[in-house]
Design goal:
By secondary structure, the protein is α/β, with parallel strands linked by helices. The chain folds into 3 domains: 9-212 and 375-455, Ribonuclease Z/Hydroxyacylglutathione hydrolase-like (Metallo-beta-lactamase, Chain A); 217-364, 3-Layer(aba) Sandwich (Rossmann fold); 471-559, Ubiquitin-like (UB roll), CATH 3.10.20.580. Helices cover 31% and strands 24% of the residues. It contains 16 helices and 28 strands. The strands form 5 sheets. It has an 8-stranded mixed beta sheet. Strands 9-10-11-12-13-20-21 form a 7-stranded mixed beta sheet. The chain is globular.
Length: 560
Amino acid sequence: MSHDLIIDDEEFEHESLYFLPLGGAGEIGMNLNLYGYRGKWLMVDLGITFGDDSTPGIDVILPDPEFIADRAEDLAGLVLTHAHEDHLGAVPYLWPELGCPVYCTPFTATVLRTKLQERGMAGDVQIIEIPMSGKFQVGPFDLEFITVTHSIPEPNALVIRTPTGTVLHTGDWKLDPDPVIGATADEAALKALGDAGVTAMICDSTNALVPGHSGSEAEVLEGLTELFGQYDCRIAVGCFATNVARLHSIAKAAEANGRSVALVGRSLWRIDAAARANGYLTDLPAFVTEHDAGYLPKDKVVLICTGSQGEPRAALSRIANGDHPEVVLERGDVVVFSAREIPGNEKSIARIQNGLLKRGVKIITADDAFVHVSGHPYRDELVSMYQWVRPSVAIPVHGEQRHLEAHAELARDCQVPETIIPEDGAVIRIAPGQAEIVGYVPTGRLCIDGKRIVPLGGTAMRSRQRMMSNGAAVVTLVATRAGELVADPQVAVMGLLEGEEDQADRLELIRLIRNAVEGLPRPSRHDDQAIREAARLAVRRAFNSWQGRKPLTEVHLIRV
C-alpha cells in the first residue's frame, strides 16, 4: 500500500466506532470486514476469491488478515452473514490465526462444519448458532440479524449497536417478493431500524449500475418450466451449487415436464445435504446420482451440473472436454447456463461453451431465455433500502470502483448526508462526529499454493508469472578454483525454443555463456557471484536479442 498515513494502535480512540475493510472494498469477493470499538474488534465475514489467467496454478485467493491476527486477543468474534464462498470460504484456512468464536445461522453453520471437517478441523472452531432474526452480544457490540433475501438460504443483514452509533451491514441481499426458498426480506424490521436511527449503512454495490429491479426466483421457475417443455432431448443446467432456491426451481420445472433430476458434482451433493438437514428441499424427492441418470431416457432427465463459471475441474468442463466418467452430452442435447458471469470468468466460460458447441450441444443463457435472476439489488432496490433505513452515512462495499462510485452517487440522490468510498485497508471513523478516513493499515492477498499459504505478490508467485510470460533457463557451470571452465556449460531451456531451432540456438547459448565467463577479469573469476551473473546476463541478452524475451534464469556453479 502506497499510503503514508499508517495508523498506530494508540491512535484508535476508545469511544469511537471504526470500520476497516481488509477485503471486499473495491472488488467483488474475498470479504473481510472489521468493526472496532473500545479496544475490541468484530469481524464480519471471511471469504475467498478465485484465481484467473493472471495467477497460474492458483485457484483460491485469500485476504491477508495480518492486521487483526496481530491483535487476535482483541478479536471478540467472527460473524458470518451467509454461506457463500466469498463470505466464509477463508475460515478453514485463516481461523487458526484468529482463534475466535464464530457466529452464524444454522444453515451456514452446517456448511462451515462440512468445510472444517474436510480440512481436518472438525471440532476445533467454536461455532455459535444464532436463530434467524436473533439478537446476541459479542464483546462490546450488541448485534441483531435481520432477514434478507439472496441466492442462498438464511442470508442476513447485521445490525451493530454501540453507545457511539448504530451500523447496518447489509451483507449480500436483494428484494424478492417470492424467493421460493426462505422468507422475504424483513421490511418491517428495516423500517423500524431506520426509525430508531442508523449512523451508517455498509451496503452491497454489485448491481449499483443496473437500473430497475433484479426480479424474482418465482419468475425463473416459470421460465425454466416453459423452456424444459420445448425439448425432448437431454437437458443439463449449470448453476451455483449454493443457490438452493435455483435447485428447487430446476427440480420443480423438471417435475412439471415429467423429468427426474440428477446432481453432477460433489459440491451440489454437499449443499443438498446441508439444505435438507436444515429443513429445505424437503418437498422434493431425492436427487438421482449421475451414474443412475445414464439409465434414464433422454427426455426424462435434467442434469444439474457444477461449473457454470468455467471452473476447469467442475462437471461442465469435463463434459465439454469429453472426459467425464459418467456423463456424455451429444448432438441435439441442451445446456442451460442458469447463472451470471462473474467478472473475470468470461474466458473460462466461453471455453466451456465452445467445447459444448463443437459437440453439437445447444447453449442457452440468460440472453436467450428467462433462466436467471441476480441475488444482488438493482438500483430500485437500493433506493428502497435507503428510504427505509435512512442512514446518516453511506459506505458502499462489495463492488469494483465503478460500482462503488455509482452507489455513492445514488446514496447522495437519496439524500444521505455523507458518503465515503472505502478501499481495503482504509480506517473509517464512523462516529462520533463527521465520518472520515483517518488512516490506513497494511493489506494484501494470500493464496493457496498446493498445500501452503503464501503471499500472492511474493517471490514464488512473481517467479511463476515471469516463467509463464518469458520462459526459464537453467545453466550449470563446472569451473576450477581459478575460474577456468573445465567443460562446456550445460543449458536447460523451458518454454523458449521450438523444433529445429533448438539445437542451433543451444550451441550458440553455450558459446555466449563461455565467452561471458572467460571474458571476466581474472580476479572476478574467483567470485562465485560474478561468474553466475555473467552467465545469467549472457542468457537473458541472447533471448532478448532473438525473441524479445528475458527468461527467468538460474545459474548453478560447481567448483572443482
